Records
---
Amino acid sequence: MDQIHNMDCLKGMRKIENESIDLIFADPPYYMQTEGQLIRVEGSIYLGVNDTWDQFNSYNEYDQFSFEWLKQCQRVLKRNGSIWVIGSFQNIYRIGYIMQQLGYWIINDVIWSKKNPTPNFMGTRFTNANEILLWCTKSPKSKYTFNYKTMKHINGGKQMKSVWEIGICSGKERLRDDKGRKLHNTQKPIELLKRVILSSSRKNDVVLDPFMGTGTTAVVSKMYGRKYLGFEKEEKYVELIYHRLRKTEESIEKNLIENVYDIKEKRVPMKRLIENKFIVPGEFLFDKNGENKSQLTQSGKVLIAHSEYSIHKGSAKILGIVNNNGWDYWHVKRNDILKPINDYRKKVNETKNS
Amino acid sequence: MDQIHNMDCLKGMRKIENESIDLIFADPPYYMQTEGQLIRVEGSIYLGVNDTWDQFNSYNEYDQFSFEWLKQCQRVLKRNGSIWVIGSFQNIYRIGYIMQQLGYWIINDVIWSKKNPTPNFMGTRFTNANEILLWCTKSPKSKYTFNYKTMKHINGGKQMKSVWEIGICSGKERLRDDKGRKLHNTQKPIELLKRVILSSSRKNDVVLDPFMGTGTTAVVSKMYGRKYLGFEKEEKYVELIYHRLRKTEESIEKNLIENVYDIKEKRVPMKRLIENKFIVPGEFLFDKNGENKSQLTQSGKVLIAHSEYSIHKGSAKILGIVNNNGWDYWHVKRNDILKPINDYRKKVNETKNS
DNA sequence: CATTGATATGAATCCTACG
DNA sequence: ACGTAGGATTCATATCAAT
C-alpha cells in the first residue's frame, strides 16, 4: 500500500482488485469552458485553469469519461465503502446524475463555502463562492463509516452541517516554485481533506485518489494514519507529491487518529449482568436521585405498574418520552450509595476483551 | 396578468405563449421513488450518452416529468429571460443535468445555507443544511437581467456571493391552520424569493411559478411591483394563495422597486457634447485636481503625447490601468472652476428625453 | 518591534448598447 | 445578425516594504 502511480486514472483503476478500497476522494477535471482572458482593471491577467487536462470537446465526451472512471470506482469500493467527488456548477450536475444512474446513493451534498473566493470582476453574476462535494455509497444498502462524534467534537460540540466554511488554499500551504508561481492551478486545502477523511474512514483504511494533482489526499491520509493509493498522469506532479509526502508527519491529534470519540461500548444484554452476579433479580433499580424505583425481573427487565419493560423503554416510560438510554438512567444501591449500572456494563466488556 | 390557475403545471404551461415570460421560479416536487405518485407523461426522453445507464434507472419517470416541464419553461421564456429552480440532493442533480441537456446555461448555482436546519436526529450523516438553486438562462447567449448594484446594496456594499444564509420559514411568516399546524411542508421564505426576484427581474416584468404551493413567488412579486402568473393543482393551496395575496401590500422599499441602484445613464458619444456646444474642440480637459490636462480634438478624443484616445482610454492611460470611466475623470474649466463633463452628459440625456 | 500600507492573487463558464 | 465603440467592474488574505 501507500502507492503513487504515474499513470492515467483509467489505466490505473483497471489494475485494482474488486472491493478493496475503503474510501475514494476524487477531484476530476471540471470542464470549465472558459474563453479568452480575464483581465483585472490594473491590467494583470487572472490565471485560471487553462490546462490541457481540463479540455473536452463536448458534454458527451465529458460524460463518457466520467461514466468510465466512476464505474471503476464503484467496482473497487468495498461493500460498505464510500466515495467523495468534488466539483463546481460546470460539472457537478453531470457527475451527480451519472452517479445516481450507476446506483450510487447520495449521503450528503456537502457545500464548500469559500471564505475568500475570487470575486466576480465584472459584476455579471453572484460571486461563485462554493464548490460541491457529493458523498455517496456504492449502493443504498451500504453500512458506511461516519464518525459522527468526531465531527461533532471538531465542530465545537455541535453536530456538523453539510455547509463547510473553509478558505481557499493559499499562503504557506500553497505549493510554489522558486519564483513564487503556483505549481498547480487547483490545489485543495488540507482542512477540506481532513474533514472528508476523518468523517468517513478509520485508521488503517485504504484511501484512493484517482486524480492526485498535488496529492493533498495522500498527505492527509498519512497525517491521520490511513493508507493511500492514487494515480497522477503528469510526472511533474508525481515528483511534487513524493517531495510533499516526505515532509509530511503524522498529526499530533492522536485522539482523532485513534477515533476515540466514536469508539462505541460493545452491546451487553442486561441478562449478562445477572449471569455475572453484578446484580440480582428482584432487587430495585433507581434513577440518579434515588427515586422512581423499579424491580428487576429474572430476564433483566424492569417492572413498572405490573408491566415488564426493557431498561431503555422503562426509563423512557417514566420520563414520558419514546426512547431513552437505560444504561445512563438506572442505578443500584450498594452500601446505601447509588451506583450506575453502566459501570457493570463496562466491567462485562473488560472481562470479555481480556 | 396576475393570474393564479388551479391547474396542473404541464396543462397550464401549454397555454402560455412562446417567449412571453421574463422570469421563472420553480420549486418542483421531488418525491422520487417511494413517496407520492408521479404524473405520467407522453413521449420519451433521450438524454444522449449511453444506453447501458438504463440498468439502474429507477429515476426514469421523474426525469420524464422534469424534462417536460423544463422544456415548456424554455419555450415560454423570453430570449433574455432566466429561470431559477430549487431542489435538494435527491433531485437537483437530475434537474441540473436535464437543464444542461436542454441547452440551458447555468449562471450560478446558489446555495441556500439554512441557519436553523432540522438536525439529523440519528447522527447518521451531516445535518442537511442546504438547498441548491440553479439560476439559468435559456441559452448561453442570453443577455439576462442582473441587478448587480441592487444586490450589492442589500449585501451592505459588497458584491453578493453564491452562498445565501437565510433561516427556514418559521414564526409569523409560516402559514398555519387554526390548530397551529403548518399548512404546507415546503413553504419558502420571503427573503429567498426577494433575492431571486430583485436580482434577476425588473419592475413590471412577468414572473411565472409553475408549482406555486403557498404562493411565496406571487407574494414577493406583488411586494416588488412585478406581475405574477402561476399554477397550483391543489385547490386548498390556491385558496390559501388568494387569501395570502389579499393581505400582501407593496413594499415600502421604493428604491428597490424602482431599481434606482441599477439604472444606467444612457450612452452619449463625446461628439454630442461638441454638437450641443457644451464643450469646444481645442479646449483643455483636466482631472479633478486640475492637473493632467489634455486637449480635446474635433472628434471628441483627447490628445496625450500626440496620440488620440477616447476619454476613457485616455484617462486609463494616465492612471496606468487598462480601463477607466472617462466621464468620472475629466473636467472642463468654466470661470476658473472645474466642472465635470459628466454634468453635460446628463444634460444631453435630459434634452433627448424631453 | 509594532503598525500601517502597498501589492499580489485565487477552479472564472466575467460587457453590451447602438448603428 | 454582427461589428464597433462606449464605458463598467473585485474581495479576502498573505506577503513584504515602509514608517
---
Amino acid sequence: MTEVITRFAPSPTGVLHIGSVRTALYSWLYARQNNGKFILRIEDTDKERSKKEFEDNILDGLNWLGLNHDEFYRQSDRSPIYKKHLIDLIAKGAVYLSKEEPKEPGERAEVLRFKNPNRVVTFHDEARGDISFDTTELGDFVIAKDFESPLYHFAVVVDDFEMGVTHIIRGDDAISNTPRQILIQEALGAPRPIYAHLPMILAPDKSKLSKRHGALAVTEYREEGYLPEAIINFVALMGWNPGNDQEIVSIAEMIKLFSLPKIQKSGAVFNIDKLKWLNKFYIKTLTQEKLANEILLRLTETLKEYAKNNPMIFSKMIPIIVEHISFFEEVSTLAESGEYDYFFVDPMYEREGALWKDEKDPIIASQKLKKVLFLLNDIDDAFFTPETIKTAVWNYATEVGRGSVLWPMRFALSGREKSPDPFTLASILGKEATIRRIEYAMKLLLS
RNA sequence: GGCUCUAUCGUCUAGUGGUUAGGACGAAAGCUUCUCAAGCUUUAAACCGGAGUUCGAUUCUCCGUAGAGUCACCA
C-alpha cells in the first residue's frame, strides 16, 4: 500500500476564495483520511501576475481554516529542477527548440515546444468516470519560454512527479488540461496519478462566481465574523454529502466519510443564506468568553465603555445579541444604529410610542404601569429575574389584556418598537433602572 | 465555433427499473409571552424535452435542448 499524497496548488494571482477552499478541503480530507501527506505548492511561474500579498492571503486563509499542510513548495524556487527535465526531454527528442515570430510584445523568438505524438488520451476520473480527448488539436504546444522559465503545464507535471503526488484533486476547469499533462508525464516516464475533478461553484445566475456576486476572499469572511467551522461545513456540502440527511458535519466525520466517487458532477450555486444559517449554528456553540470577545470588538467606542463599566449588563446582553445575528459583523451595524443603547442609557421617545395599538388612552396606560410598578415593588432586588418578574406581572396582564400592559412596560424599558420581552429586559436593567424608566413613562404619558 | 463535461423543488442535495420522489436552506401559515429574534409544528415547491428498451422508466440507451468549462510564450 503506497502512501497517499495530495496537493493544493494555487497560483498567487488572486485571493483565496470559496471555490479554492473546497478544492483545498477535499484534497486535505483525502490525505487525512488515508494518513497521507498534503502538500501546498505555490504556482508562481507567471512572474508578472504573481504577488506576494496573494500568497500571504492564501496561506493566511488556509491556516485560519485549519487546512494544515505537511510540505510547502514554491515553483519559483525550483528552476534547476525544471531545467534538468527540460534538457532531459530534449535529449530524448520529446521537446525541441522552436524558432518563432513574436506576434506580441514580450514574446520570444525562441521557445521550447513539446513534440505532440498526436493521439487520443483516455484517463479515468474518480469523480466522473472515463474521459478521452484527441490531443491532435493541441499541436506542438509550448512548455517553456526558455530553460529558466517553464510554463504551468510543464511545471505542474514535473512537480507532481518529483513530489510523488498520487491523487490530483482539482477544479474541473483543469479537466481539459489533463490530456496534455498526461502527454508530458509519459514523456517524462512519470507514473499517472489518480485524477478527480471537482465541479465549479457558481453565482446565483449560474455564471462563474465572481466578486460582484458577493464572492469574498476567505479572509473577508473572517472579518465579517464567519467561523471557520461554518465555512468548512458549508463548502464541504457543496458537491459532497456524508450519505445521510446530516447538515452539520464535523471535520472528524468528514475525514471518516469523505469519498471521491460521491462527489457531485454538476456545478453548485453558492447560497449565502445557507452559509448564514450554518454560521449561526456554530456561533451558538461558542463559549461566553469567545462571544464576548467577538461582540466587544464590534461595539462602538461609547458602547465599549458602557460594557466595561457594566460587566453584568453586558454579559446578560450576549445571548440576546447572539439571537439576532448570523455573523458577527451585524453587531457593528446594530450597534451603530443605536440598537443596544437602551441597555445602558434611559431611552428618549415620543409618548405615542408607549401606547399599544389597541389601547390608545394615555391615562389608562399610565394606570396600568402604576400597577406594574406596584407588583414589581414586592420583588426583592436580589431575585429580580425574568421568572420572578413574569410571575409578578403575568396574572394581572392576562386579566386586563396582555398587550395593554406588556407593550407600555416594554416600551418604557427600551423605547423601541422591537426589543426583547419586558421580563428579560427588566431583569437585565435591574430593579432600580426598571422602576425609574417606568416612572418616567408614566410621567410622559400624563404630560 | 471545435473539444470535454453536466442536467431531481428557487438553492444545496438524497434516492430507485415499480417510492405518497426524502432531507436542508429560503418562502408561507400557525403556536409559544405585547413587538422583534430564536424555537417548535404544518404547507407549498422538483425528476429539461422527445424517442427507444421494458409489463413498467425520474432511473438504462440514443437524439435534441439548455448550461458550464476549455481552446495562450496565464494558471
